[in-house]
Amino acid sequence: MKRVLFSALVLPFLLGSLACSAPLTTREKAAGIGALGGAAAGGLIGGAVGRPGVGAAVGGALGLGAGALIGDQMMGQEQKQQEQQRQIDQQQEELRRQREEMERLKKQTEY
Question: What integer is the mean pLDDT of 87-92?
Fold first, then answer.
């Protein structure tokens, strides 16, 4: 029963993720991990009370939601970091340009 339940939950997820042509986003990865973790925990808890299938389904759904929320927060942080890095790169380029201009002006006044 556990193998059937595990196969029913994991196999579609694995096939779906392998079939995607684009790489998974952070949100999608976290949602998948949350769903699998929630299903496993729910199956164990449900098994203790005699309803492993219901426990796995509920745990999977809750884990999916929690994982998606966490993944969304992580994606937001990644986007902020990328924007900050872009700004840093832009400022470094401006500094480089200004240094070159200063050197050019120094050479010009020497002559």
Answer: 98
User: What is the C-alpha to C-alpha distance for residues 1 and 51, in angstroms, rounded to an integer?
Assistant: 11
Residue type, 111: Y
Q: Are 56 and 46 in contact (CB under 8 A)?
A: yes
CA-CA distance, 87 to 22, in Å (whole number)?
27
Distance from CA of residue 106 to its chain's centroid? Answer: 50
Ranges of beta strands (E only) in the chain are none
98 to 64, 67, 73, 105: CA distances (angstroms):
51, 46, 38, 10
pTM: 0.63
Q: Are 86 and 80 in contact, with CB atoms under 8 Å apart?
A: no
- Cβ contacts of residue 111 below 8 Å, gap of 6+? none
